Amino acid sequence: MLNVVIIDDEDHIRDSLVKLLARHCPQVTVAGTAFSVNSGIKAVDDLHPDLVLLDVQMNDGTGFDLLKSLSPVEFKVIFITAYDQYALQAFRFSAVDYLLKPVNPEHLVAAIDRAGLLVRDHFNVQMNALYENLKSVSRQDKKIVVKTTEQIHLLDIKSIVSCESDSCYTTVHTTEGEHIMVAKTLKEYEEMLTGCGFYRVHKSHLINLAHIKRFDKRDGGYIVLANDQKIPVASRKREEMLGLIEEMAK
Description:
The chain is an alpha/beta fold. It folds into two domains: 2-135, Response regulator (Rossmann fold, 3-Layer(aba) Sandwich); 155-249, CATH 2.40.50.1020. The protein contains eight helices and 17 strands. It is elongated, with a radius of gyration of 21 Å. The protein starts with a strand and ends with a helix.
């Protein structure tokens, strides 16, 4: 069983989460609720939860304020947040779980299931990445958490040279010569990284434009990257790719 504490400053959100958990998550026991940063700290101290559903913005501060006051965090966390594209991107890069208000029951169940598998020690690494990403102005200066079955990697986005698809897995190639295989699709990385200077040149390859060494027109066209990877360019992407290279050269 997972003992859960819900911390949110909106009464109807707390009530809704209690009901949804009772209806859809039999493995969960709601140990208590709180309505602010201060009452949340007390609830965590008193109840010692396994998992906290935590509002990002409350009347007396933020969920981040609460976590910093309890650092190192000894419980798992799912953030509850209103829609903010910049903040959501930071959550995705940091591999920190979140739910949007109003909370969708299916998304709640999936997040609870993921929390049951989460390695607690990884959370502090993910939170450090999240804090950095929320402060960072430049997208290329952000960090991304990459998790394998045995390790958790904290990478500078600018250190990623390319991402290569292998069915439901993706191999992340870095400037340090690492080849990290992750149980995520290339589409997921494309959605996260396209606005950060990455471009999908082929169904199996997403590249960091900053690491292009040259474009070779032979054999249908391919990109040579800084790590000497040769990446094929899909025929329908060739003209667009050449245009991007010309823009970068200006």
